[in-house]
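Why predict the complex rather than its parts? Because the way molecules touch one another can change local conformation, and only a joint prediction can capture that. The input here totals 325 residues.
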Amino acid sequence: MAYKIADLIIEMEPIGEILLKQGKSYLLDKSFQVDTPSDIVIDLSKESLETFRAKYPQFTLNQIEYILTGFEFSKGLLDFMGFCLHSSALALDNQAVLFSAPCGTGKSTHARLWQEYFGQDKAIIVNDDKPALRLIDDVFYVYGTPWSGKTDLNVNIKVPLKAIVFIEQSKVNYADIMDSKQAVQGLVTQSMRPVKDFGRMDKLFTLLDLIIKKIPIYKMGCNMSLDAVELICGMINM
Amino acid sequence: MKIKSDYILRELAGSHVVVPMNQEVINLNGIISLNDAGMFLWKELLDDKSEQDLVCAFLEEYNVSQVTANKDINDFVTTLREADILE
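Output of the joint prediction:
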């Protein structure tokens, strides 16, 4: 079946419920299903599913299909000036801000605070776990994808990227421009890196270099209050 | 001891970071970045070297005391060992 994700034609045949359901809003119209050349073909081998299952027996096959197809997408995306960043992507007034941090820090919680502050009709969660970023005509765009981690919080939209904010928990709210060394650390740690693939790793680093040159990167400590939203909004001018 | 072939050095915006090539995608462990001295030692460790070899090479390159060199190199090697980067 053909899907349109991040302005690319993706060919895949989901079997499990999660991917079928979350992929629905990205499915190409029946009239486009035939004769559309695909940009990325995602075809999980039985072997890869079984290897993963042996390593992580806590996951069902349904979940494993969802996880591994997500990895395949992130990898293929690198051939099209794109990569996925582990972050919660929020859109407001057609500008996207990405909140990035290690798991459990509070990226999603912070995104939800923005929704509380601005209203859910204005502050939209584009992807709550691994949004796709692509450089098109010199502009970085953030896209929703079917792969949004533990939740189904994703929307099939495309929004220009305004800023990236690395967050950490803190009793007192603070926000500042991140220095280059920390920005590199944050970006390399939280980007979906290809495995055993020097060519694509080079492509990732080219993109990260462009991100650092074009997109303001902030660090923020927040106590998960609405004050934190006001502070960072002011800082990034949104 | 030497650096495992699974790890490469990449430059990004003036920082030099150690990147795992064979790590599971599901693993989002922290990334090590190296300063100039770290880079020097990394290059030495691309071939099999002992801690003593490193100290000698370091003392030829940098104007520091033997005690400082011993400590800094030991700290560096420990960091790499803990991250499972050395074989």
